[in-house]
Amino acid sequence: MNEQGTIKVEVCCGTTCYLLGAQSLLALEKSMPAPWVGKVEIVAMPCLEVCTNDNYSHAPFVRINGEILGEATVDLISKKVNELLERPVR
After folding, report:
1. pLDDT for 41-80, tens place per residue?
2. CA 55 to centroid of chain Cα atoms
3. What are phi and psi of 68, to 5 degrees?
4. Rounded-to-5 percentages of helix, strand, coil across the chain
5. What pTM was computed for the model?
6. How far apart are CA 34 and CA 66, in angstroms?
């Protein structure tokens, strides 16, 4: 978790990412599991600037607390967020 005690999920909404599924990732905000409420922030970003000619095929991208994940799906985001929520707070 970040210094505010929340997990920040930034969804890239650049053209490639948006066309390859970012809109479905943003829907997580409206269907957020109850344990995430107040602990997870999902935001749309204009572009995470991680695409190159070599990795367009890995879109859509998300950044979760600073870590970039490619080929993002709702299941992948859920898995990562749940892992972070399960970590003991230091």
Report:
1. 999 999 999 987 777 789 999 999 999 999 999 999 999 9
2. 17
3. -85, 130
4. 40, 20, 40
5. 0.89
6. 23
